[in-house]
Design goal:
With 280 residues, the protein is an alpha/beta fold. 35% of the residues lie in helices and 19% in strands. The strands form 2 sheets. The chain has an 8-stranded mixed β-sheet, sandwiched between helices. The chain has a two-stranded antiparallel sheet with strand order 2-3.
Length: 280
């Protein structure tokens, strides 16, 4: 595992409350959007999933981290428990904000792919709520992916991506160097809100959002995820206090392909954030 570095208050405990007005004029039961595991009083980690999976993609992190952290996993609009809610970036950010508010008011936020882009929008709007930011497989501008691999984007939007990537989870090598449970597919890119997720991302520049966040950030990529590693140095340079971790023998679903290495990276980063806050 390769780690590179670039040039408040303590984390609160998690306390769940069920009801919230998600956006003006849109009453919403926020309890449907998230699940909580881990000891009361532990530091809070909030996980945001990628496209066409659900919060169940974080099962390896619940298993590996909930003994010492309060692990909160969230379903984004158009996915999982919120499959019937059309995806809008503002709505996704509002859900993430509301979940954090109901779990102590401040947290380390971990986002994978789409979840990473939502997390960058979250820190642009509510930086005070994010004690630390982890971006997984999110270090390229989506419009760059579209230019570099237009056919891949086209088949996503057309709903023709093979089960190997979207229906049955991460590809597994014959030597079994990648492991972990396959993320559970849902109606993500094409159906309900998922189509709007990719359209929104393609219209948005995320480096300026990341550059405005003053807190610590960790960028985590699988070594075998070239499309989403193309901008990792630019994203790292945009961080006020950033570091880069590249995990070998992993692709775009690094958290399930190499869960032990991924969990270790999250744990090390969280402990760094906690120590920094304790000494402030």
């Amino acid at each position: 595992m390769e780690t590179t570095a670039s040039s408040g208050t303590g984390l609160p405990t998690a306390m769940a409350e069920p009801a919230v007005a998600l956006m003006p004029g849109e009453p919403f039961d926020i309890a449907a959007a998230f699940a909580v595991a881990g000891p009361v009083g532990a530091p809070t980690l909030v996980f945001l999933h990628g496209t066409r999976v659900t919060r169940a993609m974080w099962d390896p992190q619940v298993a590996g981290l909930a003994d010492r952290y309060r692990v909160v996993t969230v379903d984004l609009p158009g996915h999982g428990a919120l499959a019937d809610m059309p995806f809008r970036m503002a709505r996704a950010v509002a859900i993430a904000r509301s979940v954090i508010e109901r779990n102590g008011g401040r947290a380390i936020v971990i986002g994978q792919s789409l979840g990473g882009y939502v997390a960058m929008d979250l820190v642009a709007c509510h930086p005070e709520m994010v004690a630390g930011l982890v971006l997984c497989n999110s270090t390229t501008e989506p419009r760059t992916v579209a230019r570099r691999a237009p056919r891949a984007i086209g088949v996503y939007v057309a709903g023709r991506v093979g089960e190997r990537y979207l229906g049955r989870g991460a590809p597994v090598r014959a030597d079994e160097t990648r492991r972990g449970p396959a993320p559970r597919a849902t109606n993500g890119w094409l159906f309900k809100g998922g189509y709007h997720a990719v359209v929104t991302a393609l219209r948005t520049s995320f480096i300026p959002r990341l550059a405005g966040y003053p807190g610590p950030a960790l960028l985590v990529n699988g070594s075998d995820d070239p499309l989403f590693r193309r901008g990792e140095r630019d994203f790292l340079a945009a961080c006020s206090d950033g570091r880069l971790c590249v995990i070998p023998n992993a692709g775009h679903l690094v958290n399930s392909e190499q869960p032990d290495a991924f969990n270790a990276a999250i744990d090390e980063f969280a402990q760094t954030v906690l120590r920094s806050q304790a000494s402030a």
